[in-house]
Amino acid sequence: MTTITIIISLINSILSLITFKDKELYKTGCGVYLFFSSIFTFFTTIILIFKFWILIITQITYTTNRSFLYFQCISLDFLLRIGLNMNEWLITCVAIERALTVIKGTRFDQKQNRRIAKYVIIILFIFITSTSIHDPINRNLLSDGDDNNDDKRIWCIVSYSDRLQIYNTFIYMFHFFVPFIFNILSAVIIIIMTTRQRTVVHSKEPYKKLLREQIKQHIHLLISPFVLISLAIPRLIIFLVGRCVDSIGNPWLLLTGYFISFFPLIITFIIFVVPSKTYTKIFKQSLTQYRQMIRSQLHFCQ
């Protein structure tokens, strides 16, 4: 199951990169956000693979290289946190830009928004990193057992003061729920605004009928945030329960948490590319180009 999930996650990120690296898509703010979301998805998947197998190895062997263990202790979880949060916020930025596109209509400046998108990504990265920097600072290694015992294990633990624990919980909840709220609000705004625009063209049509039509047309915008947060809820539970459970005595709880963290990363392609005719068309074109390139290379080698 783990191997299947890892493979699906990697395939998802690669397919997303193939789609969103298109030059035409990159000219829009949404394209920029989705391209970088694909990069962070791929990056996070690789880190998750490393973390998962390191946890497995430390369970079946007695690794005592403290330098290696300390490095992975302070770095991998920190990078995972940044990667997962960046991916969630970038998806939220896509939703917000779509809402702005509908609100502004013809006044929407794609070139300006593309420039803004690049600054937003930098600001998001700095913000997420700065709100997570307390995590590696408060991590340490703890030996399980007597120093003379050859079977002792070395664990990575995080220890917060009461105030820092409150701050950590608040930040975690903020990065978890705020993107979800923005996604829902953006979807609602898109539906309401497009319905109002429709009433101008179809003035004789009942408003409720037009509203129902727009809900059906944009139902994926409403479903996607709930799917993403549903898949992320187990990670939230692990975060909340993990504080109350002895991680040394329950290492498989941590393994489960990291495994579950994969799930939101395996559906980016399904959520954004599959429902969109434009993205699907670009994906097929990119795939055709890659096939032709591979064939030409193989032909050249022969």
UniProtKB/TrEMBL annotation:
Residues passing through the membrane, by range: 32-56, 116-134, 170-194, 219-240, 252-274
Keyword Transmembrane helix (UniProt): yes
Domain of life according to the entry: Eukaryota
GO cellular component, one term: membrane
Compartments (UniProt record): Membrane
Membrane in keyword set: yes
InterPro entries referenced in this protein's UniProt entry, alphabetically: GPCR_Rhodpsn, GPCR_Rhodpsn_7TM
Main location: membrane
Alphabetized UniProt keyword annotations: Membrane, Transmembrane, Transmembrane helix
Pfam assignment, any one: 7tm_1
Span of domain G-protein coupled receptors family 1 profile: 11-272
GO molecular function annotation: G protein-coupled receptor activity
Protein name: G-protein coupled receptors family 1 profile domain-containing protein
